[in-house]
Amino acid sequence: MTKELEPVRFYFSLRSPYSWLAFERLEEAFKGLPVELKYFPVFPPPNYQNDPAAVPNKLKYIQRDIARFAAAYGLPVKWPKVRDCEWQKPHAAYLYARDQSAAHGHAFALAMFRARFSEGKDIADPVVVAEIAARLGLDASATIAALDDVALQTRVVEGMIQGATEDSLFGVPLFVYRGEPFWGNDRIDWVAQAIRNAHSA
Predict the structure, then answer these.
(1) Residue 137 per-residue DSSP state
(2) CATH assignment of 6-200, among 3.40.30.10, 3.40.640.10, 3.30.1330.40, 2.40.50.140
(3) Element of type H or E holding 71
(4) 77-94 residue pLDDT tens
């Protein structure tokens, strides 16, 4: 009988460069561990008071910080000219991809992150989304339609509400393992160690 894998809830945003860095490391970080990542796409609500991009000096720091991390990971950086969009749309498209399979969901999110932060593209642009979908073997027309799918957008919002109520979500990337939150790309190794510690006891 196969033992059921423990869940690790993972909150991420396609808007967040730190979520991008985390996504680049997920598969290697959790490889061989007896857990299953549960993905929750989120985005900052309108007039979000804790938006780091709204503080010029903080935004400058983030850009420098991301450049340092990306260089360490061997990743190219190209900041998008379009900083914001209707964020429920690309996240709804992600849910469509994930509904096709977990592998499609992961690959789609990673491709969207790379398009945004390594190629500087607008990931709410249907042309960009269609190109990524086609490259991954997804139905491009259906993926574009998902951008405006109200049911999928509602699921994104429901996941955000769950995160806020159950996990005190305040920023991304956020990992939650056995009720313990770990915030930030640089906490992935801590999550992995917590899992190893729990299963070596």
Answers:
(1) T
(2) 3.40.30.10
(3) helix 56-73
(4) 999 988 889 999 999 999
